[in-house]
Design a protein that fits this description.
This protein has nine helices and eight strands. With 287 residues, it is an alpha/beta fold. The protein has a single domain (3-284), classed as TIM Barrel. The protein has an eight-stranded parallel sheet with strand order 7-6-5-4-3-2-1-8. Helix 2 links the parallel strand 2 (33-37) and strand 3 (59-66). Helix 4 packs across helix 5 (160-170) and helix 7 packs parallel to helix 8. The radius of gyration is 18 Å and the shape is globular.
């Protein structure tokens, strides 16, 4: 069976101990995990999170994005070093709260624009840094996930194929792919083929609609995604990521001001019903 998560930014603008109630709320909504953002890492208290997770029996995954000051593709060695240190801290925090997957835009700074095509050095710097982080993560039995995002948010990894290319350069067995249907709707030619291509390395999948609203109400090919997942018999994490209640941390990248759902709870309930229906349909076929 798939394990369904939801991103905490569906409700809050940043994570702190005041957000711990969301762990209980995710359980009430029928989710299996919560996705905790590590962008504001100083506010993340792994001990308190793990205690609450253990008390109610919920799992956790984490994610982040690199910023200018932690960009592992920066021309400045000191910035690349800072990025590696930050990612290692994210690994530690994830392990401390009991997580097994840490993913996101961890290969270059979100929103960075180049004057031309990325050069060989950008790929090599990213691979070198992530190799060090991946080897560190192996001490905690933790997987890293590279999330391809659209051309307006990164210059480096926009497609599943590009994620595979960087993973090959990294050369560590605990590095996987974190797909996101919202970004795939912009960059991929075919949802089924892209999903099938990386199934063997898939560690997370953001089930985001083309407009970030309720799954099943936009243009994402959900049938193709679930057909691929079913054929691969993927048993890992999938997650709802929407910004009905847009967080401060996402405002620069996501200018959604129209109402895509009455509220986050309604989006999650209707989204889960729709997506679990597809899971029953396509996973039944492979039994």
């Amino acid at each position: 069976m798939l394990k369904y998560a939801v991103h905490a930014y569906s409700w809050v603008t940043s994570w702190s101990n005041e957000s711990l109630y969301l762990i209980d709320h995710c359980k009430e909504l029928g989710l299996d995990l919560i996705e905790i953002p590590l962008m504001e890492i100083r506010g993340v208290d792994p001990e308190s999170i793990r205690k609450r997770l253990d008390e109610i029996g919920l799992g956790v995954v984490t994610s982040t994005v690199l910023k200018e000051e932690t960009d592992i593709t920066s021309d400045e060695p000191v910035v690349r070093k800072r990025g590696v240190e930050y990612l290692k801290e994210c690994v530690e925090k994830t392990a401390e709260m009991g997580g097994e997957v840490f993913s996101g835009v961890i290969y270059s700074a979100i929103g960075r624009k180049l004057s031309g095509k990325p050069e060989k050095k950008h790929w090599e710097w990213s691979a070198e840094a992530l190799k060090e982080v991946a080897q560190y993560a192996q001490k905690f039995n933790l997987r890293l996930g590279l999330e391809p995002v659209n051309r307006y948010e990164t210059f480096l990894i926009n497609t599943a194929e590009q994620a595979l290319q960087l993973i090959e350069m990294i050369g560590e067995s605990n590095v996987g792919v974190h797909l996101d249907a919202y970004h795939m709707n912009i960059e991929e030619n075919d949802f089924y083929e892209a999903t099938k291509k990386v199934c063997h390395l898939l560690c997370h999948y953001h089930l985001s609609e083309s407009h970030r609203g309720i799954p099943g109400t936009g243009t994402v090919d959900w049938e193709g995604i679930y057909r691929a997942l079913g054929e691969c018999n993927y048993q890992g994490v999938v997650g709802l990521e929407s910004f009905v209640e847009v967080s401060d941390a996402m405002r620069e990248a996501t200018c959604i001001w129209r109402e895509l759902a009455p509220n986050s709870d309604e989006l999650i309930k209707r989204g889960l019903e729709y997506l679990k229906g597809l899971e029953r349909k396509y996973y039944q076929k492979v039994k």
